Amino acid sequence: MAEISWIKLKTTMFDDEKIRLIQAIPESDAILVIWIRLLVLAGKTNDDGLIYIQRNMPYTDEMLATLFDKPVNTIRLALTTLGNFNMIDLGQDGMIAITNWEKHQNVEGMDKVRLQAAKRNREYRERKKQQTLSISHDVSVTSRDGTDIDKDIDKEKDIVQKHQHSGKSAKALETDFEKLWKLYPNKKGKQVALKAYKKAIKDGVSNKQIQDGIVAYKKYLTANGTEQQYMMHGGTFFNQRSWDDDWSINTPTASGFDNYDFEAQQRKVAEQFEQ
């Protein structure tokens, strides 16, 4: 993701009811500093409010303590407090997400930064390609550098196209997500799941792929008699794109399997998407 050098803070943020309530508890100053630092990290990541080092590497409490120069216990107190006030969402995999990021920040402006960065990279690669052609006087450049430049340009085009995805409005995307969320058995980590869903759709994943993955996972759970407390949180399932995992059932005669009409459930969800 293209890093940005700014985030938006409202001048009335300290009039907010949640901020005022936080100010009344111990370590309030430290908690509010950590809140602002988390907003800054989310801006640097520039991925719909998610906070991570790499996609599969969230920050640990110890990492945040080092970055923010705060005791680990203070970091944990802040994360718990902010989570209780629904200001952040803590995924089971440790991923932190700013709740309602699009309301806090200028999301369109941040998307523009990403697209501009892709455009600059594309123009730079094109200049390099032309320089290579000029030096070699060989129109059919077959060198490794020329091939890599073409590949990089194609990748950057893909990035732009992904951000200019299906054209669905935010409301339409959320409506489609709600239909899938109703189907998922363990409804925890909804905000993380929603952000991961939007990212997956931008990357070209279809609702049908996700739906089929959820249905396969439910069959797997039923066949193995998995209890609710051991089911993967919805936020984790979506964030890890677990619809692509292999949920093969090794025991086709597992108890309870015959009593659940998964095909009917799958048809029901498919009909909802067609409405």
From TrEMBL:
Pfam family, one: Phage_rep_org_N
InterPro entries, A to Z: DnaD (IPR053162), Phage_rep_org__N (IPR010056)
Domain Phage replisome organiser N-terminal: 6-126
Domain of life: Bacteria
Residue ranges of the TM segments: none
Protein name: Phage replisome organiser N-terminal domain-containing protein
Organism: Enterococcus diestrammenae
